[in-house]
Design goal:
single chain; alpha/beta; six-stranded mixed sheet; two-stranded antiparallel sheet; 6 helices
Length: 179
């Protein structure tokens, strides 16, 4: 349903660069992805709140406080994955170890839309003990949008950023429409 609020969390920020490879920083890519996804959500009629609208460090508990204060109907934390340079590739979404139906619906909707839109290596929807997923009082998931330490994933991220953002936004919209 339109008119709902989506909280987008651009992972890392400020002094916390996240993954880094060949001068590329995860914190920069996540901020770009959050802004593009937010614009797509607004076009679909959703209100968007950003935990960090600029390059700043924000502890996880403050990100959660922001999501609560914004009255978010969903929380999506955006990240880039990394492993060993040039080894792993793909797109994955994570939920809490004990996810709610809403968490699973959100994660699976995003995952499905991205796989339909882009030729990404599928890495699945998995459970992990991420703080924001575990403690959020609304449906929440963490997106690992391709591997920052793989040149082909970076090429796909750079050339298809609007498509990626649109697919994530549409997945969020699909999940919220079912509520």
């Amino acid at each position: 349903m339109k008119g709902k609020t989506v909280v987008l969390d651009a992972g890392h920020g400020g002094s916390d660069t996240g993954a880094a490879w060949r001068g590329r920083l995860e914190k920069d890519d996540t901020l770009l992805l959050a802004r593009q996804t937010g614009r797509q959500l607004e076009r679909l009629g959703y209100f968007v709140s950003y935990t960090r609208p600029e390059d700043q460090f924000l502890p996880l508990d403050r990100r959660l406080e922001h999501a609560r204060a914004a009255g978010g109907d969903a929380l999506v934390s955006l990240h880039r994955n990394s492993y060993k340079p040039q080894v792993a590739r793909g797109f994955a979404v994570y939920v809490a170890l004990h996810p709610t139906e809403g968490d699973l619906r959100l994660a699976q909707s995003i995952y499905r839309r991205v796989l339909e839109a882009l030729p990404v290596m599928p890495r699945g929807v998995s459970s992990y003990d991420y703080y924001l997923c575990r403690t959020a009082p609304m449906p929440a998931c963490l997106v690992e949008a391709l591997f920052l330490d793989h040149s082909e994933d970076n090429c796909l991220f750079d050339s298809q950023l609007p498509v990626l953002a649109s697919a994530i936004a549409q997945g969020i919209a699909d999940a919220l429409a079912e509520d």
